[in-house]
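Usage example:
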Amino acid sequence: MSSIGLLAILGIYLSILFYIAYWAEKRSHSKWTNNPYIYTFSLAVYCTAWTYYGSIGVAANSGLSYLPIYLGPVLIVPTWMIILKKIIRISRVNKISSIADFISLRYGNSRFLGALVTMICVFGIVPYISLQLKSISDTFHIVTKTQSSSNIFTDTTTYVCLVLALFASYYGTRYVDASEKRRGIVTAVAIESILKLVFFIIIGIYVTYFVYDGFGDIYTKAAVLENFDKKNSVGDVTSGINWFFLCVLSMFAIFLLPRQFHTAIVENNKEAHIKTAIWLFPLYLLLFNIFVFPIAWGGNILFEGKGHNSDTYSLLIPQFFDNNFLTVLVFLGGFSAAISMIIVSSIALATMLSNNLLIPYGFIGSLENTSQEKNSKRIVISRKIGIFSLIILAYAIYRIFILDYSLVSIGLVSFVVIAQLAPAFFGALFWRRGSNLGAIIGMIIGFLICFYTLLLPYAIGITNSSNTFVQEGPWGIELLKPFQLFGLNYLDPIPHAVFWSLFFNVICYMAISVSFKGNYRERNYAEMFVDIDKYITNHEDAFVWKGTAYISDIKKVLERFLGEERTRRALTIFNLKYNIDKKITTADARFIKFAENLLTGHIGTASAKILISSVIKEDKISLTEVLRILEESKENIIVNKKLTETSNELQKISEQLKNANQELVNKDIQKDEFLDTVTHELRTPITAIRAASEILHDDDDIPEEVRKQFLQNIISESDRLNRLIDKILDLEKFETGKQKIYLSRNNISRTIKKTLESLNQLIKNKKITLEFDDVNKEIKAFYDEERIVQVMHNLLSNAIKFCSETDGKISIQIIENIDNVEVRIHNNGKGIMKEDFEAIFDKFYQSRNQNVKKPIGSGLGLAICKQIIEHHKGTIWAEDNVTDGATFIFTLPNYNTTEK
Amino acid sequence: MKKILIVDDEPNIVMTLEYTFKKNNFEVFIARDGQEALDILKNQLPDIIILDVMMPMVDGFATLEQIKKDKRLNHCKVIFLSAKNKEKDIEKGLALGANLYVVKPFSIKKLVEQVNELIQ
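Running the assembly step on the lines above writes:
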């Protein structure tokens, strides 16, 4: 196939991917881009070109050794339900966008640790990217049957890399906030994962069933080859240990590789997606491995001894049979595997470089005082340049160093380097005591050992200088031989390096953490990470901070990165979440944590802390105090949870309390008013009595007639006083419930008749016409007769009192309703204003508001009536007929109702 | 002969005041609420007004406000006579321009003395 043709196919293929990414980005909330399958397939970015080509190479050369790389993840995946969920939660609430953020935040938001993790990742991953570029380049030359050119400018693969670098830098930095989801990239990666698997299975079926006659045929033909048995058995203890270490290594890798952290955690949209990933991802790996063996041995049968690179058997076999279509298909599968890894890794690395290295160490100064647009632009551009230069750097490394290494060896070296993050990483999840210093020293020591036992010998191997360093150790010291450190001579170089580097890494991490206490901030984050489930809804509560800070200062910082609109929205959400008054000007710990989180996505945890710290004044807190506050806040959070659960109920109760309180206040005011009025009402007759008595006492020549009048006044005012006192006591009895009601069967018309008898004289005196038709009707109800007489007496006295002077008329009606008996008393005197209908039943209402000459009355009559009727479970009210006198109505539950 | 206007809605109290001031050579006018008092004042210019506070229609405070608006009544002394004996009520009464605030129940003898003092 010609280079131009292949390039054209690549061009079309890349444009389709571009389009998918573009399409998915636009539908970032649709279920097509946002589902557990896309999530799981994006995790398959784990399977790179190294899997696609390299495992065949390993299987062909050394049999089963290719398996541990897949076995490790398959073994560890079931724990994702717990571990991955925890990591996702921690990352979500803290807006973590990379593994460097994750580790450094846990150890007290340590800027140095973040930078260290970033450096280790760059060291580990850039050669790995080189490896992918190498695979693209190698396979390109195989498919086109060209030789790679030593001049990079005439080598077509250079331009392929350039296009890739541009694609990645364009699509990887759509958002300033690195913790934002990039649906476009993720969807494209997931599609590529499906394609590479399908293409691989196609070539597998082709080799197994079309080139050969199934698995059995390959097995029989391969069994006669040299070393077949030795390569395909686990063998002795030594190789078992080697296997074990490779499994461990790949277990770590599935968590720690920046691209895995990115797809599994940063791009996770829903925790529930893990459930699907738990079975689908191992299945994916399994499917990928079914045909490794047949292709490898099919290739061995065809090409053994011909000096072909066994990594490329999947291409060489169809090519051998002149099947151009399949060759290109396989090439595209490998290309997919490579570019997925390149793009995701470079995005993850560029985010780390900008957020954990560039911005916190230098760039931050220039970000402090410029506008939001400028800041965002700068951050995005710095990431674009980062992605682009990482890929170009990887290409350069490929051209200069690893042109001739097999895929697997470089891949594993990369795994070992990344594995140095493991102690600090897993410690972060489960161990509260792990300290920043321990993590830093552990990582550095681990990396140095890794460098000494792997990178250095490989580098020396590449440069082809004398191998005495590896063979005899430096200066001939046997114990320091890089592949047999301290005499450990039965492990392969990779497991050997894994063992020693992790051994010292873990020892340093733990010993230092235990010996030297970390500062309070480390301990604070330790609690938050380990107990994330407790803090998941209110994690800001778990942040311990003391000092002076003003919301306005922090707001200014936020606005420089988020813009005014987003800052304002974020603050509103915060205030709502914690029910904080907008007017408060000082920031508390929760607000500071919240602000740091908002910035973290843009500039990383370390820079967020630096920026926020620059506008606040923090007081030192001792470790013990932090622990105490945390203990309290833990309790608070538990209480909060309960509170939230019963929040509706509480709100109701508080509403009731408020009402009750208001009622109490009202009652108090009423009581005061009542007392005021009572004293006034009592003083008035006393005043009259006193004045009359004084005159009678002092004035000896008082005319007989006046003397008699004054004595009469004294008697009537004394009666008035007495009546008043009686009524007050009556009312008090009813109101406090001391007054008993003695219910019995009574005839209401008889009761009314009885009341009228005592008032007959008054009615006659005023020449009032009385209408009472139901006088002999027997209407039974259940009530306390004495009390109802009191009510009737009161209402009738009022009616008489207010009857028109000349042509007075009072009518009494009894109406039997279904469930009550209604008594209506009407007089044709002055009506009652509608707005007074309710108030007239208040105590002393008349004496304050009645617009007539003061009649003789206590002002308590109607209030007492109301009490009596209500104690009978009846109602009393006045009715609207202003033009035509006043009507008072009361009801009593009728006989039937009460019986029930 | 000095003129006195007694404004109160309690007839028995009014009766004692009327008897006492007539005996002390006053010409006595009687009103049973603020409105009646203002009506009387249209035609009469008493030397002194005795004013109850809690009355129907127009109460004592409102009545005094009206009185103060009338320039013809500038010379007229006013005594509040009320069962309201709270500090704030007394202050309010005096602030409105009353010359005296007498709390009920009161001594008639003393009230006569106070009235005489005010008039001279």
